[in-house]
Amino acid sequence: MKILIYCCEEHVDLALDMVVDEHETFPILEKVDVDNLSTGCEFCQNSAVYVVANE
């Protein structure tokens, strides 16, 4: 099951830890093109800067 967690700069460590803890796999971290994305952080109301995935 593919997981995508959109997060801000402040919560990137939390998102990385969640992928490792829940899926026991190395997380993939990618920077989001903020000009083309209006998605917010899944942990607060800030704009997402990164997307963390498990595959």
Polypeptide structure, described:
By secondary structure, the protein is of the alpha+beta class. Helices cover 22% and strands 22% of the residues. A three-stranded antiparallel β-sheet has the order 1-3-2, covered by helices on one side. The mean pLDDT is 89.
Give the topology.
Elements: E1 4-7, H1 12-23, E2 28-31, E3 50-53
Antiparallel strand pairs: 1-3, 2-3
Brief rundown of the structure:
The chain is 22% helix and 22% strand.
Weakly predicted, low-confidence segments = none
**Beta-strand percent range:** 15-25%
CA radius of gyration is 11 Å
Total helices: the number is 1
Keywords:
three-stranded antiparallel β-sheet, 1 helix, 55 residues, alpha+beta, globular, 22% strand
